[in-house]
Amino acid sequence: MFVSNGINFTGNIRERARIGGFAISRTSQLALRLCVLLAMIAILLGATKGRAQSTQDEYRVKAAFLFHFAQLVSWPSNVPGDASNSFVLCTVGEDPFQGDLESTMAQKKIGSRMIHIRHVRSEQIRECTMLFVGQDEGGHLKDVLASLGNAPILTVGETDDFLDAGGMIQFLMEGNKIRFSINRRAAEQAHLTISSQLLLLAQTVIEPSEAGKK
């Protein structure tokens, strides 16, 4: 369960639910929950009104986003972690979450795969299922992403050039709100499928047909 400033964000959902008499699929319900999370951002970060925005609050929210991103992306078979039925969520370089990834992901699963958090060096990133690249790795960003090739690893970052460098999901700050954009082309090159619901929630989407365009 994600808890911040007295607001609970439960991670337990039923396979199907009914709203207004209509059945909602698991994927649609996950997207609905992420949409609710988007609506909560101003409340979560706005609690610091009258003082500087807390970095800890920002990364607590980003940790919740990472969990929902993983739920709305499909991986091919034989991805890193399959042998141990694990979903390996990594950070490379300095860990800006300060323990919030561990607390947010505790005992959670992606499908049947238990989430494990690892803080790795650049030579270990191909062992990950999902990789977060923080601000401090900005100077090495192109090298980090290039070393992955087309490995089926979901990459998420927060530097301004993340999508241009070949990353897949980039966090954006819009006032006191956290948004995200998606490079669908990079995801498909890595054989990852991003749900249409997640794409609809993105600020912008780089489509596969946009290859070579600026």
Give structural notes.
With 214 residues, the protein is an alpha/beta fold. It has a single domain, classed as 3-Layer(aba) Sandwich (Rossmann fold). It has six helices and 14 strands. The protein has helices spanning 26-46, 55-71, 100-105, 141-148, 184-189, 196-201; strands at 2-4, 7-9, 17-19, 22-24, 73-74, 86-92, 109-110, 113-120, 130-133, 154-157, 169-174, 177-183, 193-194, 205-206. The strands form four sheets. Strands 7-8-6-9-10-11-12-14 form an eight-stranded mixed sheet. It is globular, with a radius of gyration of 17 Å. The termini are far apart.
Strand content: 25-35%
Provide the succession of SSEs: EEEEHHEEHEEEHEEEHEHE
Number of domains: 1
CATH class, anyone? Alpha Beta
In the predicted model, the low-confidence regions spanning at least 5 consecutive residues are 1-24, 39-53
State the distance separating the first and last CA atoms.
Answer: 41 Å
SS class: alpha/beta
| Structural shape | globular
The third-level CATH topology is Rossmann fold
Mean pLDDT: 79
- In CATH, the architecture is 3-Layer(aba) Sandwich
The CATH superfamily name is Response regulator
Helix content: 25-40%
What's the number of extended β-strand segments? Answer: 14
Key terms:
214 residues, alpha/beta, Rossmann fold, 8-stranded mixed β-sheet, 6 helices, 14 strands, 30% helix, 26% strand
Quickly describe the structure:
The protein is α/β, with parallel strands linked by helices.
